[in-house]
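Input set for joint prediction.
Command: fold jointly, output tokens.
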Amino acid sequence: MEKRTELYRGKAKTVFTTDNPDLLILQFRNDTSAFDGEIIEQLDRKGIINNKFNHFIMSKLEQAGIATQLEELLADDEALVKKLDMIPVECVVRNRAAGSLVRRLGVEEGLVFESPTFEFFLKNDALHDPMVNEYHIQAFGWATQEQIARMKELSFQVNDVLKALFDQAGLLLVDFKLEFGVDSAGNIVLGDEFSPDGCRLWDKQTNQKMDKDRFRQGLGGVVEAYEEVAARLGVTL
Ligand code: ADP
Ligand code: UDP
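tokens >
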């Protein structure tokens, strides 16, 4: 699979086209950003960890019947994926209060909800990823009502599968972000990545943060925490 031209260089990944117009290569870099790209640092080994972690998680989701972009692992830091027409919103599911929800609603971090919540955010760094609702998504033509319903349904399915998976590894899945796209057949498919960069994971015993909040909050030991999570899940690095 020959890597052709660079299509897009994002904050954490570079996207390349391939000989096959339906397939792309995602290269996971060590760049780690916070606060919508305001802070960027290189964290040694992070690209490799996130690539392998993502491959492991998406394989588990495929096994559970959830359609993902997954094709194959190409290199330590590269994956071959289905090219999707990405819907420009982030889907966030939360099981407990943390991050922007704590700031927005003034509740205590760690508050356990009666049931999981769902939020859409527009992918737009310049606007700081504002929260949007289903009416905005339809009004601006980002997705149809059917596609919106499907993204929500799939996000909650992902939550069910991954909550159980992380629980077995002694970890609490606090919240996470997903990005979906449309494949050539018109189906909604999970794209982008699932890694500790885009979710919150706390140790079940100690509530220790094992995700990107270590970077955002300057707690140190970021890559070590990602490696610990991978080891507990049995991801081969
Ligand atoms: P950002 O764009 O937020 O800086 P990344 O550095 O992760 O994020 O860049 C990856 C880009 O590739 C994102 O814009 C994402 O929407 C896009 N992308 C991820 N998976 C796919 C896919 N399967 N097909 C097409 N585009 C994808
Ligand atoms: N998230 C993400 N990319 C973003 C914004 C959020 O991956 O651009 C993830 C984040 O890591 C967390 C979840 O989505 O797991 C919810 O994030 P939140 O809304 O609390 O925002 P934050 O406080 O992280 O900015």
